[in-house]
Design goal:
The protein has helices at residues 4-16, 83-92, 137-142, 155-165, 167-170, 174-177, 210-221; strands at residues 29-39, 44-53, 61-68, 96-101, 124-127, 130-133, 186-191. It contains 7 helices and 7 strands, in the order αβββαβββααααβα.
Length: 246
């Protein structure tokens, strides 16, 4: 019974409540994104993954934004100080929830004096159980990353370099992406690039964005062929220079 307009209104409500991804979030240096759309017989679901670094968080993380008509594995009553707080959370977030995952296995590669810098002489680090070698300077240049401090590498610069070379490791795993998906849902779309609305502008809503208009049609028609974008992708971190600057 969900219409395209229902889906778009749900996404607009999340944008108005600041629970829809803002790719130029002043607190997060963007490194990589991914979007997936799912449909079951009765329900629809969209996930948007954002990998980046927030100096306030201290370590890089991957946030999975979930939107849908039915969300599995939501936060529990036990996660809140009271039943009233839990019920208020559900009232304010009826069709959305964020989950954070940490792809890096430890933080001993972060400088202890400056928590935004990769420790000197770091040769490798562990990401999801795999040893990943720190890129050399040529890899940064090839990835379009100009080091802001030639004598050291900032964590957000490393994140962007690893997103270019180890994308599947830093973004969500299949299990993380599908943790809140309804039973029996089929993935209709998996996008690494799309045209994202600049929702910091209150007039720029998902409902007015070609990408999400077409995704809503994909979900209601259950037809991936309804996604035929004409606008260029803008989800690469270089298109959102204000991210992380606060």
């Amino acid at each position: 019974s969900w219409s395209e307009n229902d889906i778009l209104q749900t996404l607009d409500a999340c944008a108005e409540a600041f629970t829809f991804p803002m790719l130029d979030n002043g607190y997060v240096y963007l490194a990589a994104t991914r979007l997936a759309a799912f449909r079951s017989a009765d329900d629809w679901h969209i996930t948007i993954e954002v990998f980046g670094f927030s100096p306030r968080a201290g370590v890089p993380d991957t946030c999975v934004y979930n939107f849908g008509s039915n969300l599995n594995n939501r936060q529990r009553r036990e996660d809140f100080v009271s039943a009233d707080a839990y019920n208020e959370y559900l009232r304010l977030n009826p069709n959305n929830e964020m989950q954070f995952f940490m792809p890096f296995d430890d933080d001993d590669w972060i400088d202890t004096q400056d928590g935004e810098v990769v420790a000197a002489n770091t040769k490798s680090l562990s990401v999801r159980g795999q040893t990943v070698y720190v890129p050399d300077l040529s890899h940064y240049r090839e990835s379009g990353i100009d080091l802001s401090r030639p004598s050291e590498v900032q964590i957000f610069e490393l994140c962007r370099a690893l997103a270019a070379s180890h994308r599947d490791l830093v973004l969500a795993s299949k299990a993380e992406r599908e943790r809140m998906i309804p039973q029996g849902a089929e993935m209709l779309l998996l996008l690494d690039d799309w045209h994202h609305p600049d929702v910091i502008d209150l007039d720029s809503k998902p409902s007015g964005n070609e990408t999400f208009q077409q995704i809503a049609r994909v979900l209601t028609e259950r037809d991936p062929g309804c996604y035929a974008p004409t606008q260029p992708s803008n989800t690469h971190w270089s298109n959102w220079p204000d991210g992380g600057l606060l």
